Structures are given as structure tokens and as C-alpha cells.
Amino acid sequence: MAGEQPNQNQPDPATTSTPNNTTPPENNQGADENLDIATIEDGIRKDEARLTIMQEQFTTATDKINDEFESTLASNPNSLFSDEELEKLASDSNIVEKNKMLRNRFEKFRDEKLTAKREEIGNFEKQLQGRRGQFDILSESNKFSKENPDVDMEALAEYIQEDLSPRKKKELRDQAKTKFDFLTLANEEFKKANPPENEEDKNLPPDLSGVNGASGNNSYSDDIDREKYLKSIGIGR
Fold it and tell me: Residue ranges under compositional bias (Polar residues) (predicted)?
């Protein structure tokens, strides 16, 4: 799951809810994170198995829909046709018209039986796909957090959400092969926008206040003070 291309419709990895880097006194956060991921993954596998069963049941129902219609028509025709329609079917009326009535009622019967199941499977599959995407994001975010323990994930998430333009996000997604790569690229942008304080200090001009004074002209006044002191102790001129 971790190697999929980031989906532009999915939330950015760092903006999802992930454990932070603060280690509690018991120092068991890593175990909790692994447990959460394992629990989510186990739930996804169970849902995938359920989806497979639902699809198999739908296929079976589709294959048997003709038999079910014929059985219902034989055992309970009034559930399919009105009395007037049944009279037409029993009469020697136009065969083409009777076949049309049967075909139309079969299609309605089929849709009534299968459409709801098809929609149920589609909705379930869509929800499962969303959970797969969330698991992928959580897994990649945790991996990135563990490999980059000095990164403030909350600050990175806020930067991605608030400061990165949609155009820049798209550019990073296009460059990234995985969500982990996206976080790595986003973190590089974050560091450029938020350099460490000592890096900023390197760009400041040196403090010259202690070297010949702020203006560089304090040496003259220092000489005068020195002469006054020497004179006061009987050495100066």
C-alpha cells in the first residue's frame, strides 16, 4: 500500500491525524502507533474479505435472476402482474405484445432485486477505498516521523495546509513517487521558509560595538583618559 502514487483528491499526508513526536513517560508511544496501524490494517483486510463475499453473492444473484423470475411468475403471478395483465397473458392475444409485457416486467423485477445490492456494493467499495487511502497516509506519515524525529509534524502539517499554494502542492505531488516522498519535499520547502535561528544570525552583520566603539573613533577618548590617570599618580606629563 505504501508505494502508491499520491492521489490529488486525498488529503496531504501530514495534515491527517497522526501521533506527535512527544514521548510519554512510559515510552510506549511507538508500540501504540504500531498497534493502531495494525488494527486499521486488520480492519481493512476484513472489509476486503466482506467485499469479496458481497460481490460473489451479487454474481450468484445475477446468474439466478431468470430462474427466480420464472419461479415467482409460477408461484405468485399477482405479485408481478395485475389481473388485467394476467388475463392478456392467458388469452390468445398477440404473442409479440405478451413477450413485450414479460420482458418489461422481468427487467423491472431484475432492477428491483439487483439495483439496491449493486448500490450497496458500490458504496461499500468506495468507503473501503477511502480507508485504504487513509491507512496509506497514516503509514507513510508515521514512517516519515520515525525517520525524521526532529521534524515538528504539527508545524509541517500546518505549513502544508496553510502556506503551500495549490500550485506548489501539485508540483510536489508530480515530483513525488510516494506520499513519503511528498512529505520529504514539503519538509525541504518548510525548512527554506523557516530557517533555524542560528542560520539567520549568520546573515547578520557582525557586532562592532566592542571594537573601537560603534563609530570606530573611541581610541582618542581612551588615550585622554589614560593620560589623566597617569598624571594623577605622578607619572603622566
Answer: 1-10, 212-221
